[in-house]
Amino acid sequence: MHPYDHARSSVKLHGGRWQDYFAYHHHFDSSKSTFCHFTHRALKHHTEGVAAAREIFGDHIDNSDGVSVSTETLGRQHLAEDCRILPSASDWVEGFEPPSWLPCLTPTIEDLVADDVRRFGGDAEIYHPLHDWFYQTKTWVDGPAWFLFRHHAFGVFQAEERFGPVLGAADRSAVPTRVVAERHIQRVLGRTPPASEFLRRIKGERWMLQATSPKKLGLD
User: Name one Pfam family in it (predicted).
Assistant: First the structure.
């Protein structure tokens, strides 16, 4: 479904206006810009993605009726309406065929941070959260499929959404988040691939494309 329809469904469940929820649901569906295929949902449509969205939108959204709605509840709604189940990240990568160019060894976070300090200046604490965020997906799945979720060109923009346009104080010492994020990916993978290079390797399953319709939800 379109984010507008997910938002209207949220109104039916929690009140308020569709505008209260649109940005949240758009966040999940923005991955379609990387690959116009149902497998784009692998980037955010899972329980780990719901938790990650909480880091951006907070624990609750206050709608126009003054009701505080849990973002976890909204995320689970979105997943159920698009997949009919609540998949985990590991569900998406069953049968995933990793490309041969993925590295066997990766730099440590400490090495990546030290490189940024040398290149851009500032304190290590400016850069550490971003590199930790990229490596967070190691805990989501077993094997090399963890690169799929953030180590690509779309991941650069995901990082900017998460950390804002710059790292550090918003003055001369600030460094564009995109610059640091792309440098991270290049240091880890040797290049910055499009997300589609990973997504086309996902083995499609019926549950991945069983989105409901506005009509079935009683919205039309």
Answer: DUF6915
| Burial class of residue 10 in the structure, from the number of CB atoms within 10 Å of its CB (0-12 exposed, 13-18 middle, 19+ buried) | buried
H/E stretch holding 78: helix 71-83
Q: What are 102's two structure tokens? A: 């993925």
What DSSP string runs through 15-62?
A: -S-GGGTHHHHHHHHGGGGT-SSGGGGGGT-SHHHHHHHHHHH-SEEE
pLDDT, tens digit, for every residue of 99-148? 999 999 999 999 999 999 999 988 999 999 999 999 999 999 999 999 99
C-alpha span between 25 and 209 (Å, rounded): 17
Backbone angles phi, psi at 22, to 5 degrees: -60, -45
Q: How many C-beta neighbours within 10 Å does residue 100 have? A: 5
The number of C-alpha atoms within 13 Å of 60 and in the hemisphere containing its C-beta is 7
Domain ranges of the chain: 3-95+204-209, 109-199
Distance CA 162, CA 115 (A): 22
Please write the tens of the pLDDT for every residue from 19-54. 999 999 999 999 999 999 999 999 999 999 999 999
For residues 148, 154, 156, 159, the Cα torsion angle rounded to the nearest 10 degrees is -80
